[in-house]
Amino acid sequence: MQTETQSTKPTSERKFIRLPNELAEQVKVLAQQENRNVSNMAQVLISEALQARAS
């Protein structure tokens, strides 16, 4: 019998998006400048954009 273990880490859904090549390159450059991986940089940019829209 298998038991599930509960993680204390919050989970997030994984989403896949397609970016135009120019936009993907801009995200890549920003990620390198901020020493982040590309997916983390995209998450930061999306979060910042949503916060800016909310205010």
Topology at a glance:
Elements: H1 21-33, H2 38-54
Helix pairs in contact: 1-2
3D architecture notes:
Pfam families: RHH_5. Residues 17-53 form the CopG-like ribbon-helix-helix domain. This is CopG-like ribbon-helix-helix domain-containing protein. One of its GO terms (biological process) is regulation of DNA-templated transcription. InterPro entries: RHH_5 (IPR012869), Ribbon_hlx_hlx (IPR010985). With 55 residues, the protein is mainly alpha-helical. It has a domain at 21-54. Helices cover 55% and strands 0% of the residues. The protein contains two helices and no strands. Helix 1 packs across helix 2 (38-54). The radius of gyration is 16 Å and the shape is extended. The termini are far apart.
Short key terms for the protein model shown above:
55 residues, mainly alpha, CopG-like ribbon-helix-helix domain-containing protein, 2 helices, Ribbon_hlx_hlx, RHH_5
> H/E element string?
HH
Judging from the principal axes of the Cα atoms, what is the shape?
extended
User: End-to-end span in angstroms?
Assistant: 51 Å
> Which regions contain 5 or more consecutive residues with pLDDT less than 50?
none
Please summarize the sheet with the most strands. none
Q: Compute the gyration radius: what is it?
A: 16 Å
The total of beta strands comes to: 0
SS strand fraction: under 5%
Mean pLDDT: 90
The helix content is: 40-55%
Report the total helices: 2
What structural category characterises the helix and strand content? mainly alpha
